[in-house]
Amino acid sequence: LDYQLGLVPYSRTTLVNKIKAQLSDHRFQHVLRVEQTAIDLAEHYGADVERASIAGLVHDYAKQRPDAEYRQLIQQEKFDPDLLNYGNGIWHGVVGAYLIEKELQIHDAAILNAVRRHTIGAPEMTTLDQILFVADFIEPGRDFPGVEAAREAADESLAAGVRYEVANTLQFLLARQQKIYPKTIATYNAWVAK
Ligand code: GDP
Ligand code: FE
Ligand code: FE
Ligand code: FE
Questions:
Q1: How far apart are CA 173 and CA 136, in angstroms?
Q2: Model confidence over 135-175: pLDDT tens digits?
Q3: Would you state the pLDDT for residue 191?
Q4: How far apart are CA 191 and CA 194, in angstroms?
Q5: What is the DSSP letter of 178?
Q6: Which pLDDT score, from 0 to 100, does residue 142 have?
């Protein structure tokens, strides 16, 4: 597949190589599986396959940047200072989208928003947001208690997949006494009874 919509100012192969250069092999293989899972979901649910591919490929682009770089960016670019109370898990989506736009010259708002929301979700999520959020969670390399139920939920509907994921993630964080980012709670509240 090569891109037709002009959302990326170079070929898919060039994009893949730029991403590969930023990531460990383990993380890069995850990214390729998320891309394919996002494409499958887009085909199944009638969404834009090209945006699903690009969002899947770029979603963890900035995951392996040092914490010091994120802290500096959050201050310099005037992101919400509360972000400084969290870590890479939150930063690589919310702040990572900024690096993707700047370094990869991808300006499509739908793709950048899906990346911003891929870890914490949002009360309102577009179909593309939901596809990336769910694909990241159920890609075939994932192996955690509940992943089969998550795949079944995503098969039933995208919303069911999101609902399963937000409940499972919150339980996981609580069980480990991890800090909950406020938007993670807002996402949970909006989706649990949807
Ligand atoms: P990955 O980048 O493919 O590993 O997956 P994600 O982007 O979905 O998740 C990154 C990390 O953020 C995971 O370890 C999640 O458990 C964690 N995470 C998600 N929500 C929260 C939150 O509210 N608080 C904290 N502390 N971590 C979170
Ligand atoms: Fe991620
Ligand atoms: Fe996720
Ligand atoms: Fe991921």
A1: 17
A2: 999 999 999 999 999 999 999 999 999 999 999 999 999 99
A3: 97
A4: 5
A5: P
A6: 98
Are 47 and 127 spatial neighbours (Cβ–Cβ below 8 Å)? yes
Q: Where are the beta strands (DSSP E) in the chain?
A: none
Nearest to 108 by CA among 132, 81, 89: 132
How high is the ipTM of this complex?
Answer: 0.96
Single-letter amino acid, residue 120? I
Domains and CATH numbers, the chain: 12-192 (1.10.3210.10)
Pocket of ligand 1 (CB under 6 A): 60, 63, 86, 89, 93, 118-120, 136, 169, 172-173, 178-181, 184
CA of 101 to the centre of ligand 4 (A): 18
Question: What is the rounded distance in angstroms from the CA atom of residue 91 to the CA atom of residue 145?
Answer: 25
**Is a pLDDT exceeding 80 seen at residue 1?**
no
